[in-house]
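Structure ticket #2291
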Amino acid sequence: MSCGLYPGSQDHEELDAKTFESWGVDYLKVDGCHLDLQKGRSYYEEFEYRYKLWHEVLTTKLKKPFIFSQSAPAYFSPNFHLDKNNTDWYRTMEYVRKNGELARHSDDIKVYGNNPGNHFEPGGHWESMMNNYIMEVRLARYQSCGFYNDPDFLIVDWPDLSMDEKKTHFALWSSFSAPLILSAWIPDLTKEDIAYLTNKDIIDVDQDALCEQATLVSQSESIDVLTKNLANGDRLLTILNKGSETETIRVPIEYLGIDPDAKYTAKDLWTGKSRTVSKEVRVDLRTHQTAIYRISSPNKKRLNPIPTGQIFNTFSL
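Resolution: structure written out below.
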């Protein structure tokens, strides 16, 4: 049975896949609502069996394989408390990355309005975004070219999100090389919305050929600092102010794994402006604002950073 309580695809996987193919479908997301446990399989085993079956059908029974988006990990995530120590969450991540191109790993991002009239229900959208963000952070090791962790839609036109919050959403998802799928009524997007959603410098980060997910190198109660390699040898620096006050943040250059005594070019990907930095990158951020920089050598040489990161407990993060 589907999430909307309609007949689902369980036990009809091949028939439904071929029907979708006849409609011209090339991208399929399979959810796991109301899964019927069969042949003595446990909840985990049924999910594993069904999603591997879908992979087999989509890659061997069709003229051309679909892009396959899987929701299996979400059902074993900390958001649903089915596995108190997260073991089955991580076990699920291991097999889904072999089954398809992306996987939804945690709770659904908060929808516009969960009611018959689809009236807007304010509140909780920033918190929902931050939930999926911190779940994504835990799973960086599973991502590689050809498989992407999916923290869910970009909720672009939600009235209770500030422009800083919406731009933070876009900057973080792009730093993760995550799918950029809009959930919005496109005709009503403002010029300001379209401007940040079409920022080529940030889209280039999302689409970077290394496919890396930015990882935490520093975290405090209000400030997160993330970084990753870029294919041309640059480093990405993303700084998030989760707090409720404007803050001045100073990020030491060594957090990026590069020589702190050298000089670098820091390009602000929001403004397109560049400046020379040494020792640290300093920025003032409003509440829920995110800065995103491309750090490069002035002579355009590859930076060749020393691996850097933050050790954290993925259960209690």
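Closing remark: The chain has a mean pLDDT of 94.
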